[in-house]
Write a structure and sequence with these properties.
156 residues; 6 helices; globular
């Protein structure tokens, strides 16, 4: 799975771009995958783990009103996480992940496995991606990381 991160690294190096991540439900897993690649310090600038709503607000300036109106697991929050990560770093691209990994916390409208991802890049419109992954907590987290890396690789 880390081969995907290595491929992304080569793509970012060729484009002379640096990456920042903002993670919630993956709890640093995305950063772990990225930094498992030797030489990732040349293209990975930093990562924020914003597991709580307070961390989202304090570290990457997600609006409290966004969290109150849409929830932590939403398109709006994923977008603000990505844009905030970009603004609070020296990076060119930011990838965000927020979701419900389980085993509890799901609702009828946001079942376990619901994940939103955001992709912000300087001077471009922020993109968002949504998926509902099946499996246990670790399977959902791994699938979210894989999907986020794939989306970024196909966009950069």
């Amino acid at each position: 799975m880390h081969a995907l991160a290595a491929q992304l690294g080569q793509t970012l190096l060729k484009a002379n771009k640096k990456l920042v991540t903002v993670e919630s439900c993956t709890g640093g897993g995305l950063g772990f995958w990225i930094t498992s690649v030797a030489g990732s310090s040349r293209w990975f600038e930093r990562g924020f783990i914003t597991y709580s709503n307070e961390a989202k607000i304090e570290l990457v300036h997600v609006k409290a009103s966004t969290l109150n109106e849409h929830g932590a697991v939403s398109e709006a929050t994923a977008r603000e996480m990505a844009e905030g990560g970009l603004k609070n770093s020296q990076s060119d691209v930011c990838l965000s992940i927020t979701g419900i990994a389980g085993p509890d916390g799901g609702t009828p409208t946001k079942p376990i496995g619901t994940v939103w991802m955001g992709l912000a890049e300087k001077n471009k419109t922020t993109l968002t991606f949504h998926a509902v992954f099946k499996g246990d907590r670790q399977a959902v987290r791994d699938a979210a990381i894989h999907a986020a890396l794939s989306h970024l690789l196909n966009t950069v």
